[in-house]
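Reviewer comment 2.1 asked that we show a complete input and output for one of the modelled complexes. We chose the S-adenosylmethionine case, as it is the one discussed in the main text.
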Amino acid sequence: MGQSPQAPNNTYELRHDWSLAEARGIHDLSIGELVDRARLLHRRYHRSDEVQLCSLLSIKTGACPEDCAYCPQSAHHNVGLETEKLMNVDRVLEAAAHAREAGASRFCMGAAWREVRDGEEFERVLDMVRGVRDLGMEACVTLGMLDEDQAVRLKEAGLTSYNHNLDTSREYYPEIISTRTYDDRLRTLAAVRNAGITVCSGGIIGMGESTDDRCSMLVELANLETHPESVPINTLVAVAGTPLGDTPPVEPLELVRMIATARIMMPASMVRLSAGRSGLSEEAQVLCLLAGANSIFFGEKLLTTGNPDTESDLAMMEAAGFSALQPPHDGTSSPVRKVS
Ligand code: SAM
Ligand code: DTB
Ligand code: SF4
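Response of the prediction step:
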């Protein structure tokens, strides 16, 4: 069907009333039409030649009590991963400084926790956040579930963004995770939002879900009262020993469709081409960046799995005419919206 993203008064207001049928109609457009529409909105809200480079660090690795079927860090799966307790602050800040030197403007720290617990370890994470902000970078953490008080403390420490993915549709979610619910996930996102931290929430494709599941996840995100400022689109990194270890890879054009649909439904958000780039050709990655993605994870490692090396990423960006987005100086999470 292909409904236009334009609001009835011909402006490009952000919408929060998407139906699954509309999302699916956009998703299933011809690739040319889909990319054209995504690009129009991309250019309207962002500098389409800029890509934000984000570096990831696993600050606490493995032995996670949750049973997420995709995740090598779950204690329920046997992947032979070396576990690591929460890192000390100095080591984390060293890695952040190194990432900044290499060109990253956002530093994301991930802990394999079910939830945040008050105490010395949380205090340490707060110190990490303060340290990353002092380096002039955006700071993002992903620590599992948290409550309102913990969100406020992270905000006070200067946290830019909290990553907590919906991962998939409400309907498919129980196929992937049994140890927490979709509503638990949404409650954490609300705590983050209420504390004034920007929200980073997206998901994974390639876990055996249907196209409707993918679109339904985008509807959940786009119909939140405020769109997540950051929407990571991951493709499954199939890790042997996880229940999804033998899942076949997604077709690159399916990823392009997902990114373009996210861009159209949440035009002002950063759409991040996240995990799974190692399995993509550079041409497919450039197509994702043309179809509305404006950020990549930068650095040889994601949390526990590999990512393209920094030299080849910089060469790819240069060849395609993209430059790295510089960190904003006012502490906000996203580049100033450019409407032209
Ligand atoms: N434990 C916290 C949580 O679940 O929110 C934070 C860390 S968790 C590793 C962050 C996100 O990484 C997950 O929500 C999932 O979307 C993504 N992820 C984990 N394993 C992945 C994989 N094998 N392939 C793609 N994305 C993955
Ligand atoms: C997100 O959406 N993707 C990142 C980040 N948020 C934390 C994590 C990807 C993890 C890929 C598997 C791994 O390296 O362990
Ligand atoms: Fe734990 Fe997060 Fe991995 Fe789930 S995705 S097993 S919560 S680290």
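The chain has one domain: 31-313. We note this here for comparison with the apo prediction described in Section 3.2.
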